[in-house]
Each structure stands twice: as C-alpha cells, then as structure tokens.
Design brief:
5 helices; two-stranded antiparallel sheet; about 15% strand; 5-stranded antiparallel beta sheet; globular; single chain
Length: about 180
C-alpha cells in the first residue's frame, strides 16, 4: 500500500496534450510487452531483430545514437517528397501493429525536424506530431504505444516535450485497420 501511495504521490505528469499511461500498458504479453513481434519488412531497411528487441523486450535502452541516419530513411521516396514539397508530412507507424504514431513535420519545416533529430541522435517529435490515440507517456517519461511497443522517451527541453524515438520502433508498414485513427 505504501508503494502505491509513493508511486502516485511522486509520479511525474507531463503537460497536455501529452496523454499519460500507466505501467499496465507494458505488462508481459504473448511476445514481450506486445501481443505480436515486429512486422517482417520494416521501412527504411531497419534491422528487424534489433527492432524486436527494442520494441518488445526492452524498457530503457535504445538503438545507438545516429542509427537512423545509417538506414534508408534519407534515400526514401517519402523523404524526397517531403523535402521537395514543403507541406508534405511523413507518417511513422508502429513496427508491431502498423498503427500511426507520429506525423512530421507539423508547424515546422522538414529541415527543422531533421536538424533537431540529428542534434539529439534520434528522430525527435513534438506534441503536435504525436497521434495521441495510439501513444502514451508513462510517469518516468517512457513513451509507448497503447499496445505495448516501447518507442523511446519524452525528454523535455526549453521548447517543451520532445519525444526521442527509436526509428526501429516506428518503421512499420501501415495497417489499413488503423487508417481512421490519424
């Protein structure tokens, strides 16, 4: 009982629009913290084994800093279109379920999104780029999907919440069943 009180009393809350979640989201399921392993063919040539380890069997570790720059992300058609068309956004999908998790850039240029991400070593999203129907932030800042995929962490800075996310966690192929959840 004391542990429950202690956790509730000292749990960190992040300001809206962040949607808080609790530890039950990351409970052990059929495949680690998820019901399913990562998809077979992840976007941008992301390593499936590393993705499965980070998404489903991990709560604190990340792909190595800068990993996302070594993938096919920058040579993808999506990035070419986003770079050329200033209003084009890229949707990042859960590597387990294909649910949309982040849409970027929003209210900033693609160049600003890339520069901030490169500065920190991982794709970095802001509150308005999060698909809150599918994403939760736990009291310790761990950022997860509602189905139990570990995504990364919220590491706020002077500009507000910044979601530092593993590319392998958001390299999924869209699941048409989640299309209406953007």
């Amino acid at each position: 009982l004391l542990a429950i009180f202690f956790n509730a009393a000292f749990a960190k809350r992040f300001p809206p629009p962040a949607v808080m979640g609790d530890e039950s989201i990351m409970s052990i399921k059929t495949h680690g913290t998820s019901e399913t392993p990562v998809q077979e063919n992840l976007r941008w040539g992301c390593d499936r084994k590393k993705a499965d380890e980070i998404c489903n069997f991990n709560r604190h570790w990340a792909e190595r800093g800068g990993y996302w720059e070594t993938t096919g992300f920058f040579s993808s058609r999506e990035v070419a279109v986003a770079t050329k068309n200033k209003k084009k956004q890229i949707t990042f999908y859960d590597s387990n379920t294909g649910a949309p998790l982040f849409v970027a850039p929003r209210d900033r240029s693609f160049s600003d999104f890339v520069n901030e991400s490169k500065k920190h070593g991982w794709p970095s999203f802001r509150d308005n780029e999060v698909v809150w129907k599918n994403v939760r932030v736990l009291p310790d800042g761990e950022t997860v999907s509602v189905t139990g995929t570990h995504l990364g962490h919220n590491i706020p800075d002077s500009n507000g919440s910044r979601y530092c996310i593993n590319l392998v966690s958001v390299a999924g192929i869209p699941n048409v069943g989640f299309g209406d959840l953007l």
